[in-house]
Write a structure and sequence with these properties.
The chain has about 425 residues and is of the alpha+beta class. The protein has a 10-stranded mixed beta sheet with strand order 3-2-1-8-10-9-5-6-4-7, with helices on both faces. Strands 13-12-11-14-15 form a 5-stranded mixed beta sheet, with helices on both faces. It folds into 2 domains: about 210 residues, Nucleotidyltransferase, domain 5 (2-Layer Sandwich), CATH 3.30.420; about 170 residues, ATPase, nucleotide binding domain (Nucleotidyltransferase, domain 5). About 40% of the residues lie in helices and about 25% in strands. Helix 12 links the parallel strand 14 and strand 15. The protein is globular and about 70 Å long. InterPro entries: ATPase_NBD, MreB-like_C. Pfam families: MreB-like_C. This is Plasmid segregation protein ParM.
Length: about 425
């Protein structure tokens, strides 16, 4: 069923160029409609239609640490490299938007490069809008995707490519986006310049000229509720597996995105690496003065857990928080002692995080006079907390709401990390 919504949340039916076609007049120019949720832990990006998730990490490419250049005439090797380019990103960035231009490994390659990974400092007060990491990761993935599409179409490696992102949607933490001038200054970092990206994997250097036309920002959390209401592919009301746990837990006959619009005040708790965003919406629209962030997240808990783990087990090598969380959550059975130990250290650190979430929910309960129809927990951090926190959180909510407790939806792991991206894709598709 097509949504019939007010102008604030109107959905315009729009067909995206599914093939990412190059200009007929200029085969070296690719036009795109993109969305990016640049998390402190992972980049979640949709480029036209393909999606990519990779660690928000980069590292300097030092002399002697370079990857071996692949001969552009070795078509099979080029094809294999571009089929898995996300694991081998090696770029030189030159852009007025970047404070520290240079040559970097980006994503998984940065973790194994032999040089110190550059990660978001989740304990710093620096906002995402001020950091270079999100931009460099984004510029890199766009450039490699453009090259892979060109090679797919023309079967050779070009020396130059132009990429024009006609419409781009991204998000910032709620408290950061509230600061006067932040949206405008961050938008300028994208739209005011041409960004030069050099891809270094091949015997021919590939020079990419990247530019952005229209840029849209949504607060984190608010973007997530858009992604929960609307299907990012079909642009109708969302339904199906994403709500199955809710339907089962509350013995509902059915539940769709349209029901969220009818739920009254909906509290979204978007648990990230460095921030937790709390947003209240009603009929899909932000409720004034009921949106905020706290500077805490599972990334901070993970870094504290790594410190505690290495104090007890000094033989364990330093690692980034993404690797630590991956080990803690792998759970390969009863004999997987490593995973259990890592998870126990992480759970000890997340207890403080859980207390902060509960206190924030109590504040919203008071401010909204108990009128909350639904609570949604999402973000990559929701996956980390659920097993340890689900029952306790539900008990707190039942005590706060003795008559009609709100539905609680823990978004499934399959969807939780990309829910903001889903909402941003919707925004990008309908952007005029």
């Amino acid at each position: 069923m097509k949504p019939n919504l007010r102008q604030d949340v109107v959905i315009i039916w729009y067909s995206v160029n599914r093939k990412g076609e190059f200009d007929v007049a200029d085969n070296n120019t690719l036009h795109m409609v993109d969305a990016s949720d640049g998390g402190n832990g992972f980049m979640k990006v949709q480029l036209n239609n393909p999606r990519f998730i990779f660690p928000s990490i980069m590292s300097d490419v030092l002399p002697g640490k370079e990857l071996e250049a692949i001969d552009v005439n070795d078509i099979d090797n080029v094809k294999a490299t571009l089929a898995n380019f996300i694991d081998k990103m090696d770029v030189k960035i030159q852009s007025p938007a970047i404070r520290d231009n240079g040559r970097y490994f980006v994503g998984p390659q940065a973790s194994i490069s032999g040089t110190e990974p550059i990660n978001y400092n989740v304990k710093s007060s620096e906002g995402k809008s001020e950091s270079d990491i999100g931009l460099i990761c984004l510029f890199s993935i766009i450039s490699y995707y453009a090259l892979s599409k060109f090679f797919e179409n023309y079967n050779y490696v070009p020396a130059n490519l132009n990429v024009v992102v006609d419409k781009f949607a991204t998000a910032l933490p709620i408290d950061e986006i509230k600061i006067k001038g932040v949206q405008q200054s961050y938008a300028k970092r994208f739209a005011d310049y041409h960004h030069q990206v050099t891809i270094n994997n091949f015997s021919t250097l590939v020079h990419v000229d990247l530019s952005f036309k229209k840029v849209f920002f949504d607060p984190e959390g608010v973007a997530a509720i858009t992604g929960l209401i609307f299907d990012p592919e079909r642009l109708n009301y969302r339904q199906g597996e994403i709500f199955d746990d809710l339907v089962e837990e509350y013995a509902l006959s059915d539940f769709t995105g349209e029901d969220i619009l009818k739920a009254g005040n909906v509290l979204i708790i978007d648990i990230g690496d460095g921030t937790i965003d709390f947003a209240v919406t009603n009929k899909g629209i932000r409720v004034p003065n009921q949106n905020r962030s706290i500077l805490n997240g599972v990334g901070i808990s993970a870094e504290n857990a790594i410190d505690a783990l290495r104090q007890k087990y000094p033989v364990i090598a330093p690692m980034d928080r993404q690797t630590f969380i991956k080990i803690a959550n792998k759970n390969q059975g009863p004999n997987d002692k490593e995973s259990k130990v890592y998870k126990s250290f992480l759970d000890e650190q997340t207890s403080n995080l859980e207390r902060q979430i509960i206190e924030q929910v109590r504040d919203f309960h008071r401010a909204l006079h108990g009128q909350i129809g639904m609570i949604v927990l999402c973000g990559g951090g929701a996956n980390v907390l659920k097993n340890h926190f689900h029952d306790r959180f539900k008990g707190v909510i039942q005590n706060l709401f003795p008559f009609n407790a709100p539905y609680i939806l823990w978004v499934r792991k399959k969807y939780a990390q990309t829910l903001n991206l889903d909402g941003l894709v919707v925004r990008a598709k309908v952007m005029k």
